[in-house]
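so my prof wants the structure for this chain in the tokens format not the other one, which i didnt know existed until like an hour ago. anyway here's the sequence
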Amino acid sequence: MATLKIKRTSDWVYMARNYKIYIDGHFVGKISNGATEEFPITDGQHTVRVKIDWYSSPDIFINIDTNETKHLTVGSFKYSNWVMLLGLGIIGLHSILKGVTGFGYTIFLLIPFFLFLFYYSTIGRKKYLTLAETNAD
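here's what i got, hopefully its the right format
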């Protein structure tokens, strides 16, 4: 029997939450932050998707032979850690400048941040997680 090995990158955005793994539309298990899980599957073509809440990865199609192991890597959207840090940094900068100088217009720097999050919460929700085939560890 073939094996599908999925590795989750270590992200702090959803570090306390598990991603749900779906093969051919059927729930097969969960994967925690930084973990690697193995799933036995039949040979042939399969569709793999990873979800958290209503966010998901795009479907990835794999062809697997008997006794073969395929490796996939899943993680948050590209630059997710940096986007969250930048948003928190802007909020901190705004708080400091507003309290010290009374200058409150730095809050407008958050507009691109919220547009980015709005995109991934609506149109881009099926691209929120990245899922790609990788080489063996």
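also thought this was worth mentioning. Residues 43 and 64 are 5 Å apart (CA to CA).
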